[in-house]
Amino acid sequence: MKIQCTVCVVNRLLPNLPAAVRKKPCKSTLALCKHPKSDEFCLLLFSGQNKAGTKYSIKNNIKNVLTRFINEGKCTIQLKNPEYDLCIQGDALQIKGFIHLLKRAIDKTISDKELTYSSMSVTPIKSRDATSTKLIINKRSDYPLKGFPRTLESLYINDIQRSGLDNGILQLNRLKVLNLSNNLIAYLPEELNRLPNLNELNVSHNSLGKSSLQQWQWIGGCLSKSLHLLDVTHNELTFVPDQIVKLYNITTLHLSHNNLTSLPVGIGSLKHLKIFSASNNLLTILPGSVKKLRLQSIDISNNNFAQNMPNGAGIYPKPLQVRSLKECAGKKVLWARIPYPKGTLPITVIDYLDNAKYCVCGKACFNVFVRQTHNLLLSSISETVCTVANDEIFVPIDCYFCSLRCFSLAFYNRNRNPIVR
């Protein structure tokens, strides 16, 4: 058995060597081997600098195996002769399997079927393969038949007419960039939200407009914290689900060149959002929560905004109407950003939380609110505003207010400040 990993060989007799003299960790191939003519096992360590490999005997030579951080893909094998520590780092599943087999080899409980006799002739994997962190696929013939390397951090699958997502991609726990642009993908699997390190997701020029609301369940999960960029331009979208507010750390959101008539009411709760584009759609009004945004750039050109929309009469609650306990609890959950993944709550409660409205103060509201329309000066929420020649700098916004206090404060500021009228 062999694994690809990063190994640092530490001499325990020289623990105080200066950093400049110590051996640095390097990409290596570590193999567990058995001699074809005896029952002895050994470890073989190859690297780009040591292509011949180094052999370490196992019989009565393993001092300790430290596995405290094995769930993070780290472990240490301490040898007696020479007095070296092999500090290993790599894929957690592969290392667990390797250490399990090593312990069985030490206890002599391993069968011949589990370890081939020819393993003494194992050769090192090429350095460029061991360090494979980026893969670009522009032709169907380039698609890997034996699966994707577990070390991938960037994966580009472009213009090959793919209609779905390979299950192998959902196992790439190191993946940071996933670019699936220019394909025929109609929906993304829910398991996508289990990728813990995914920072950028580009699914532009696909067919996500054909997906139903239930097929957007991939929003949330690990992506709530990890995803920083989402690009769904050119997908013929007619809606963007309200669940997009679960992408708490997103900084760049591209929704341009679709068929959107409205945006999620809570989009203004994405407090880290800096770059936003929704140009070339069918928008007539923006949600009032956008007043909370502090953007670097916004592009909502080529839409159907009605200019100088008069302030509406609004929808007022009864003067003495009291919020239900359910509404108060829902407000607290969403304000604290407590995750509620599928299966943790009844589906009716999840739908209730997902369909919340958002006040201009950033808090959620459900059944008790005041609603009015205003006109917003775009330069008040963004440093740069992308427009065409005929576009106005004011756009209408549909505002929800969770209380009469928020409504009165907004009305007072509107009379004093010309940016909202």
Describe the structure.
By secondary structure, the protein is an alpha/beta fold. Helix content is 13%, strand content 24%. It has helices at residues 92-106, 127-130, 223-226, 325-335, 347-354, 404-416; strands at 2-11, 26-34, 41-47, 54-57, 62-66, 74-79, 84-89, 134-137, 154-157, 177-179, 200-202, 229-231, 252-254, 275-277, 286-287, 295-299, 357-358, 364-365, 370-377, 382-386, 394-401. A hairpin with a 5-residue loop joins strand 17 (357-358) and strand 18 (364-365). Mean pLDDT is 83; it is low at 116-130 and 311-320.
Counted by DSSP, the helix tally is 6
**Which overall shape is indicated by the principal axes computed on the Cα atoms?**
elongated
The unreliable regions are: 116-130, 311-320
Query: pLDDT average, as an integer?
Result: 83
Layout of SSEs?
Blueprint: E1 2-11, E2 26-34, E3 41-47, E4 54-57, E5 62-66, E6 74-79, E7 84-89, H1 92-106, H2 127-130, E8 134-137, E9 154-157, E10 177-179, E11 200-202, H3 223-226, E12 229-231, E13 252-254, E14 275-277, E15 286-287, E16 295-299, H4 325-335, H5 347-354, E17 357-358, E18 364-365, E19 370-377, E20 382-386, E21 394-401, H6 404-416
Parallel strand pairs: 8-9, 9-10, 10-11, 11-12, 12-13, 13-14, 14-16, 15-21, 16-20
Antiparallel strand pairs: 1-2, 1-7, 2-3, 3-4, 5-6, 6-7, 17-18, 19-21
Keywords summarizing the entry:
421 residues, alpha/beta, nine-stranded parallel β-sheet, seven-stranded antiparallel β-sheet, 6 helices, 21 strands, 13% helix
